[in-house]
Amino acid sequence: MSDGGIRPGAAQDGPRSRRGAVPATRDRIPPNPFSRRTLLRGLSSPVGWIPGIFLVAIVGVLLLSSHFQNFGLGFFGPAWNPNPTDPSVATYGILYFVIGSAVTAGFALVLAMLLSLAIAISLVVFLPSPASRVLTSLTDLLAGIPSVVYGIWGYVILAPYFSKQLDPALSHALGWLPGFGGSPTEYAGGTGLILAIFILTIMVVPLTTALLRESLRAIPREQVESGLALGATRWEVLRRVQIPWARRSIPSAVLLGFGRAVGETVAVFMVIGNEVKLPTSLFSGSSTMATLMVGQFDSAFEYPDLLHALVEVALLLLAISLVVNLVGLRYFGSRGIVRVGVGP
Amino acid sequence: MNGNDERKTPPPDDELTRRGTSKRGSTVSVGLAVALAVVLLLIGIGGGYALEKGYGGSSTSAGSSVTITETGSTLIAPVMSLWGPNYTALHPNVAVTVGFTGSGTGISSAESGTVDIGGTDAYLTPSTAAQYNLINVPVAISAQLVFYNLPGLDQVHLHLNGTIVAMIYGGAITTWNNPLIQAANPGVNLPDQTIIPLHRSDGSGDTFMFSSFCYLSWKGWPNGYGTTVKWLASSPGYNGNGGMVSGLQNTQYGIAYIGISYETEALGYGLGYAALGDNLANANGTNPANYILPSATNISEDANLGLLNLAPPSVAVSLILGGVPGATNLQLGAGGTNPTVSDPTPYPIVNLEYLLISTHPANPSHQRYVVEFIQWILSYGNEPGKQLSAVSFLPLTPAVIGYDMEALQQVPVSS
């Protein structure tokens, strides 16, 4: 994903080039440190090749280390049994890990989008500017915390709390809802899907909030003021002017958040419970493709088939993120991703 | 992408003025960034150079320093963290770095040659060892404990035997008041609660020992043994011995296998541990005399019985005692046999802790320091009641030390 996606500087050119004379918002846009265009142009082509070369090299090395071992259709089945004593009966089915990845990333993404939309709107529209400035830097700060810190916090502080307080309470209150009817053995240790989703949500929120916030901020002041001048209430301006303007950046926020959520490894490994099964409720322990790799990789050097299976999981994960990004670029690229923050 | 945008778009009309005010600031920040990068690069190169010098020059000048790198088993790491600094105190030019990474990493790092010493609870099979030019050097005797989180029973050492434990982890026993457990523990008020068996989610020598124990103790054990195996769907996984301790602390009615060097830590959390049954206890044994606590005496009985001397020449062995009465299996390394021991056996999960080192070192003058360090571990490091007892390990038997010293002769060193 281009870093232009989150750099507000990119927002400036969009409306101008399409419409000509949209009132400038340049007072908020920091100067581009690389604005010597000739220098950039000279460098951009060879430098631009570097990521591509890396990508091809990584995929190539992974393909080679997989020894192109064919696990058949069973690779997408549920049976995961790396039997070290009798490799002939070992089976490598990754279905439950794919499900774990999808469930954690999916739920975390939905929650994070709702939360960050609310946070972005309050930061830009409702809060007085000193408070908004402080809270903005605080949310940005959250994005910079290493994921292992979230993991430790989740494991040491939250897991006992989830196990003894929150999970039983949720199960008691919402047990009639599918997904909340877990038995006490499922939330015994506090680790599981719900804690992983919680941690992931907190990790994704700063990223998506930053995108949505900047896109809301890029709205020309005059548009908001003319709305108010026409007699619209603040809510109406928000609903009719500001949210439609910011809507275009939602797909890119979703893509960015998904990338973070599906690839997050260490923090999830510490809190998800590492059980290999079909989750029966949100309290179930589970595993994701990423946690499978981090947990099993050290043993894999002893068992070649396991190594090949893990490498193929890595390729699958890589393919998923590539497809997600390419689809994102294809459908939202011209507006949503490349020029984040540009309104309709 | 940004470049593309910029190319297509005509320059904003006021760009000159905007640049005029901000140019200095941006130049300064770019300059700072470049300077920082250069400094970091220099530090990196300098550090690497110093390290190289340390390795190369160590043979000539006594003042330069050597770093021995170790990674692997979280069971060995605590005692390695004692041995390392104590050795450095005596040999100020030798530093030892220790990694708490798990036996799987210890083995793979030793195989790839990224560390000097790989620590592992699971021996490397003789064929694998030969393939990677490594030798198994046993440095201490350890044991594994079976802990449980049962409120009110943490002071009681439940009687559990290999069959019971394997059936719990294999799914055949699911509640604490199962008749088999109750029969082995007459008079104990066992709760009618589902047992939650915890396992190690990383590649682990403890998993190797424990799955071996289950494999040998119950014919129905489904999934073999190794540093990673398939577990029950209802079995949560935790990372490292430390993770097992805190995970079990959070998991009421849970059960977990934990290395003996974490005994103190686990007891501090109010967890109880089992008296494990010997070979005679395995087939529904109810005689309390057949249940043995992992005390130092009981563990070292293995050595007194001479079990260690049954090891094949590679000393690739785990003393995992399962089987049925009269036909106890002593699990040996690949290529070894399983001799029958008809006497009652001592504590059933006893293990040698191994260091893996290369017999084809890239730098023999550096390897000399590694060998000297291990020789020190085998002599002073193994003194009874000192460093080893801090982690509840036991010293090696003379026979194994003799083997080790001979094995170390295979390592080419130059001074």
Describe what you observe in this structure.
The complex is a heterodimer of chains A (344) and B (415). Chain A has helices spanning 13-19, 37-65, 95-126, 129-144, 147-174, 193-217, 221-229, 234-247, 250-263, 266-271, 289-300, 304-337, and strands spanning 80-81, 91-92. Chain A has 344 residues and is mostly helical. Chain A has one domain (96-339): Orthogonal Bundle (MetI-like fold), CATH 1.10.3720. Helix content of chain B is 39%, strand content 19%. Chain B has helices spanning 2-8, 15-57, 77-90, 103-112, 126-131, 162-170, 179-184, 205-217, 240-250, 263-268, 296-304, 364-379, 398-408; strands at residues 66-72, 94-100, 117-120, 134-148, 159-160, 196-197, 199-200, 237-238, 254-259, 272-273, 275-277, 291-292, 317-324, 327-332, 340-341, 349-358. In chain B, helix 6 crosses helix 8 (205-217) and helix 12 (364-379) packs antiparallel against helix 13 (398-408). The model of chain B is unreliable at 1-23, 48-62, 323-329 and 332-342 (pLDDT under 50).
Show the helix and strand layout:
The complex is a heterodimer of chains A (344) and B (415).
Chain A: H1 13-19, H2 37-65, E1 80-81, E2 91-92, H3 95-126, H4 129-144, H5 147-174, H6 193-217, H7 221-229, H8 234-247, H9 250-263, H10 266-271, H11 289-300, H12 304-337
Antiparallel strand pairs in A: 1-2
Helix pairs in contact in A: 2-12, 3-6, 3-9, 3-11, 4-6, 5-6, 6-8, 6-9, 7-8, 9-12, 11-12
Chain B: H1 2-8, H2 15-57, E1 66-72, H3 77-90, E2 94-100, H4 103-112, E3 117-120, H5 126-131, E4 134-148, E5 159-160, H6 162-170, H7 179-184, E6 196-197, E7 199-200, H8 205-217, E8 237-238, H9 240-250, E9 254-259, H10 263-268, E10 272-273, E11 275-277, E12 291-292, H11 296-304, E13 317-324, E14 327-332, E15 340-341, E16 349-358, H12 364-379, H13 398-408
Parallel strand pairs in B: 1-2, 1-3, 5-11, 6-9, 7-8
Antiparallel strand pairs in B: 3-16, 4-9, 4-10, 4-16, 11-12, 13-14, 13-16, 14-15
